[in-house]
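The authors assume throughout that readers already know how a fold can be written as discrete tokens. For illustration, here is how one protein appears when written out as sequence plus structure tokens:
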Amino acid sequence: MDSTRFPSGDGQPGAGGTGGAGAEVPLVREQAYEIIEAVLAGTDPEGAEVRERLREHVAAHPGNPEAALHEHLIFTRSLARQANNRPNPNKQDAHRHPAAEQISVPGRGQAAIEAILHGGMLVTAFQPIHELGRGGVIGAEALTRFLWEDGDGAGSWFKNAAAVGLGADLEFSALQAAVAAAQDLPHHLVVALNLSPAVCLDPRLPGFLEHAALEPSRIMLELTEPLQSDELEPLLDVLTPLRSSGMGLAVDEAGTEAASMRHIRSLRPDVIKIGRGLVAGIDADPSRQYLVADLVEFGRQTGAALAAVGIETAAELAVLTRLAVAAGQGHFLGMPTIDVKEWATWAGPATALQNRRGRRMAGQPPQTDGH
């Protein structure tokens, strides 16, 4: 293998380096090196152009594999779009660019998913979570990014992995990458880890979290899918000891259906997240404002803080803050990023919302409505 592909002029080792400098390389940088190494180790002729372009991107960013990967993603997505947008008079015989064939639409088969699992070909981006009332970053949500991700995003990988029986394995790989990358976040931040109910019920989860290199009080388990009725009781059995150890619980994209409200009452999460569907244009829609105000009150009754996802304008932010939504994230407040230097800018003192959550995690009962 060509060792010159990782420029070393700044003292940064290549993937797998074990020297003294290697111990100081941020873990997310090591992830990036490993992904680059895995791609460049390929020998298939159809991927030759992709590998050559990746070498060029690495050479253009000596010692900064995160930037090289980011630039490479832009290039590969462009190739995929060009290939997919070509006229296609005969679908079965349509010509596809060989590089696009290798890196285009995610989740096209079990082999591609297994390659990701075996090669660790994913990285973690973090998006900052802000306290809306007082300002400041209080947490970061871990978001999985795949080297060969196209416009469908990471969700396609997880959906297709589940279809071939590898959904839980892929989620655990993503969790492992997130926990490793979180070592480079400011240490006061809560780290939101996305989990499906199925993975919450996986017998591997308690052991994984027990040995995770994060203090339990920094972990926020975030349920990303609605519960089925028969999942509630087993889920409570799993979550109760985890939360007793100090971990928090968030329910993602909470709906207003009666079943969703009943599940939230039973789970009593620390955070109820409202999605872009309610946030978009809330400044110009009184009905959405009334609904969010009701959810804030519901959260108060059940001991949960409200957090808004997908804040994209100053007007949306102003209304959500006025409605006493406690926390929020979105492109207006901060984009997801794999840049460790940007993570460092989120450092700051613990805020009121963190202290509130810490009191509840310490065992003080939340305010309830008696139900």
